[in-house]
Amino acid sequence: AQRVTQPEKLLSVFKGAPVELKCNYSYSGSPELFWYVQYSRQRLQLLLRHISRESIKGFTADLNKGETSFHLKKPFAQEEDSAMYYCALKRGGADGLTFGKGTHLIIQP
Amino acid sequence: GAGVSQTPSNKVTEKGKYVELRCDPISGHTALYWYRQSLGQGPEFLIYFQGTGAADDSGLPNDRFFAVRPEGSVSTLKIQRTERGDSAVYLCASGQAASGELFFGEGSRLTVL
User: Fold this and answer.
1) CA–CA distance, A59 with A45 (Å, rounded to integer)
2) Which of A6, A40, A62, A84 has the fewest CB within 10 Å, making it most exposed?
């Protein structure tokens, strides 16, 4: 069975500092990985997906199949980055996403 | 509306009662998903519809839970004989099949007393 692990429930960093939110997964096939974000009082929404290889709001994430990781990174945190971040896995050929438990990111001024 | 709409936003019921939660997806989205989120947890997959049929219902916890999408648009999640452990936020999402991008509603918060 597939599993997504986000080891940090809470991550607090100062504005301007680098941010890395960890995500590890277990799945025997070829997964697709995603990061979803939920800002205060807003809906859960897609931040980025590994197949796009894009940077969204300064965030990037690289799929490392050897380490089965998909860590989310940003070189300089901004206060508006404070939110809940969820890593999610989509099995090849199937549609339901499996989510991690989430990391609450707090950016201190 | 432009987004996924869920009603009611809040539902308080007594143990043993029957509950229905409604989801109105984004027009044109063929895929519809139900998730459940308990406090401190990530969204937990319940069921996925492609069109009118349930393509994957492996996440439904037991036979008290059932969902329908009779016309391929609006979906209803039905919970019979509710238990206190059913208390959670029930999230609905829609999307284009196989895209992986889910558009979520604001959720229905269910409290079973």
Assistant:
1) 14
2) A40
What is the least distance, in Å, from the CA of B22 to any CA of chain A?
17
Residue B101 to residue A44, Cβ atoms within 8 A: no
Mean local confidence (pLDDT), B24-37: 94
pLDDT given at position B1: 55
User: Going by C-beta distance under 8 Å and a sequence separation of 6 or more, which residues neighbour residue B8?
Assistant: B21, B108
Coil, strand or helix at B86: helix
Q: Please tell me if residue A97 touches chain B, with a CB cutoff of 8 Å.
A: yes
Residues 28-47 of A with CB under 8 A from B: 32, 34, 36, 43-46
On whether any CB of chain B is under 8 Å from the CB of A99, the answer is yes
Contact A97, A3 (CB under 8 A): no
